[in-house]
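Q: Hi! First time doing this. I have a protein sequence and I read that you can turn it into a structure. Is that right? Here it is:
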Amino acid sequence: MIAQPVLPGRTHEAYRVTVAEYLRFKEQGYLVVPGLVAQSEVDELNAHMDDILAGRIRVPGIDSPGVDAPAEERHKFWERLHMPHRVLEIHERFMLHPRIIDVLEALIGPDVLALQTMLFFKQPGQAGQGFHQDAYYIPTQPDTLCGAWLALDRATEENGCLWFAVGSQNEPIYPDDDGVTPNGDRTLADIKPIVGASNPDPEKNTLSQIAAKYPQVKVEAEPGDVVFFGGHVIHWSLGNVSQRTRRSFVGHYCNARSRVPWNHGMPYEGDSANSLHILARGATHLPYAQPRFGTPCAANRPDLYGERVVPDRPKSMMPSNGFMILTPHLKDVDEN
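A: Yes, that's right. Below is the predicted 3D structure, encoded as structure tokens:
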């Protein structure tokens, strides 16, 4: 008899979202989970960013200044990096970090599709980003988008922490008159298009008028804290006027049963790009991608991160005590 290989289990202690945290996310549009990612992991990602800034690591596909370029040129070049998980292992690993996905499983899951990564350097003097809604840029159908913002430095008002318009998660996604994107809700009878989304100047960004209806709250964070926020909530950041960096790693996710007609501006076949995004947790009837660098997730370790409830048996909605409950079929019974 051939011995079966022993597959490794989870590498991190699981995080369980409380009812109070779940309600806070729904009521405020965002949730801060302090210390979700270990300091040693934060240090690893910060060292990686230092190597990028120094020119010791070159990002595939980006013609950045090398190690021999003047420091001022290298630092000026780097403000943010989009979709690094597709070319560098460390970013795929942080995108699929089990404790981050644990929270997403509770907030938008249980099935989670990993879509996007961004790395923000936000060095002294660099600008912030004006009022915007993430689902304006990344549509999901049904709409289940959620961001996860990992603080790599201490984020304060001075170095450009996040701000939220609390309650704006109940607003629709405002379409634009700029021709930037066809996204947004155009079916509501009286919705008014915006202009200048993400522009740091509130006079040129008319989403500021919507945000003004709500309390505006700054969210300062410590390294390792993760801020989760829905795709509708209006948020922004100010420029870094301090002498310290405000580095962060951001992932975007949706329920894996949503159709995603988005691939960061890159072409895709068919009416969705789901086949290019990674199944992080649970299961789905839609196509999905495997992680390029083999990071454990539902796509390649369904035994560990796949469907949670009786994965090997089909289910049907059945009546129970006056409610319709998703019930596994009995074993050894003709499925017909």
